[in-house]
Amino acid sequence: MLNIANAITLSLVFSGPITFCTQAFFVFRLYSFSQKKALLVFCSLLVVTQFAFTLMVSIATDTTGVLSLNSWQWFIIFGLFITICADMTIAVSMSYYLKASEPAFGRTSRVVDQMVLYILATGIITSISSLASGISVH
Length: 138
Prior knowledge:
Layout: H1 4-34, H2 37-64, H3 69-100, H4 106-137
């Protein structure tokens, strides 16, 4: 049977790589749209830093068997803050470059508008989720 400590450890171990792969994909897509190396480097730095924070917390949890919030609280909150920054930077930048390259055709324009709305909505949802997690840890 899986106890709560093992479930948290398992969640931490899998959430880091999944989040990293997802955000890395969107950073690659963002670079495809923008062709801006500075944006690529900035977003990549955020994504890799967030992954490193998640990896360190999951290793500490796995080795000790329990996550001590007193000693890791600032680390977790900072990692969640980086996640919020990465999600919002990717969502806003992707929406900006998608809207900037929008064609003048009416039907295609509506599709682009819907995609921008979807990108912003999903970026905001993941950011709110990270913010709620940070508040609950604090």
